[in-house]
């Protein structure tokens, strides 16, 4: 019943009224902080429990040892494993062999976060603030990894998908929510804005 309510009324959770800017910003920042902290906590727990040789901050020799070991620990047999990995590149190990890849990706991450914050206040000002918070929090989580270790810490392995972390999942969910907003809500809002323009009725 609850599911049918949300599927029949997508705007209930896809639209955020732009009236209270301060409240919207606090919601976005709070969600981002929660996601980033949760991401960092789960990464540290996974590496300390399942890769005890990993002392933070991770040293390059330890990183190479973890990557070479290929170890994984089953939580749900044939479904979910904890597999500590350090990915020096982007998603799916892109740019992992490129010189100064970490510096390039650090710069790109900072720019991405700033662009998201700007979009949340302009073009997407009625999109859900928490979706931007999830996106920004996930980006900050992986950004902190790059600053601390020179790569992104991954540990969730499903067998049929590249190893990832909660920050990656948060980014995917945030993007999915914004795509839904674009398809379900943006066209209606554009039509409403055009209808309110002077002279539009005749």
Annotation keywords:
202 residues; mainly alpha
Whole-number count of domains:
1
Q: How many beta-strand runs? A: 3
Major β-sheet annotation: 3 strands, antiparallel
What is the strand arrangement across the widest sheet?
1-2-3
Q: Give the N-to-C terminal Cα separation.
A: 43 Å
Mean pLDDT: 76
- Gyration radius, in Å: 20 Å
Strand fraction equals: 5-15%
Structural class: mainly alpha
How is this structure best described in words?
There is one protein chain. The radius of gyration is 20 Å and the shape is globular. The protein has a three-stranded antiparallel beta sheet. Helices cover 61% and strands 9% of the residues. The mean pLDDT is 76. It has one domain (32-188). A hairpin with a 3-residue loop joins strand 1 and strand 2. The chain has 202 residues and is mainly alpha-helical. The termini are far apart. The longest helix is centred in the N-terminal third of the chain and has 30 residues, at 21-50.
């Amino acid at each position: 019943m609850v599911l049918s309510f949300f599927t029949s009324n997508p705007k209930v959770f896809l639209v955020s009224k732009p009236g209270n800017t301060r409240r919207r910003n606090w919601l976005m920042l709070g969600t981002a902080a929660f996601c980033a902290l949760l991401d960092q906590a789960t990464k540290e727990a996974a590496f300390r429990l399942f890769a005890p040789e990993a002392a933070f901050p991770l040293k390059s020799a330890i990183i190479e040892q973890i990557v070479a070991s290929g170890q994984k620990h089953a939580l749900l047999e044939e479904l979910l494993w904890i597999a500590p990995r350090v990915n020096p590149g982007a998603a799916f190990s892109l740019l992992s062999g490129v010189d100064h890849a970490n510096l390039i990706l650090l710069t790109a991450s900072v720019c991405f976060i700033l662009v998201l914050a700007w979009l949340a206040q302009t073009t997407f000002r009625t999109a859900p603030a928490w979706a931007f918070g999830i996106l920004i929090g996930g980006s900050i989580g992986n950004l902190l990894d790059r600053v601390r270790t020179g790569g992104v810490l991954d540990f969730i392995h499903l067998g049929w998908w590249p190893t990832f972390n909660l920050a990656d999942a948060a980014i995917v969910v945030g993007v999915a929510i914004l795509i839904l907003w674009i398809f379900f809500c943006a066209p209606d809002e554009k039509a409403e804005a055009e209808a309110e323009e002077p002279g539009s009725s005749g």
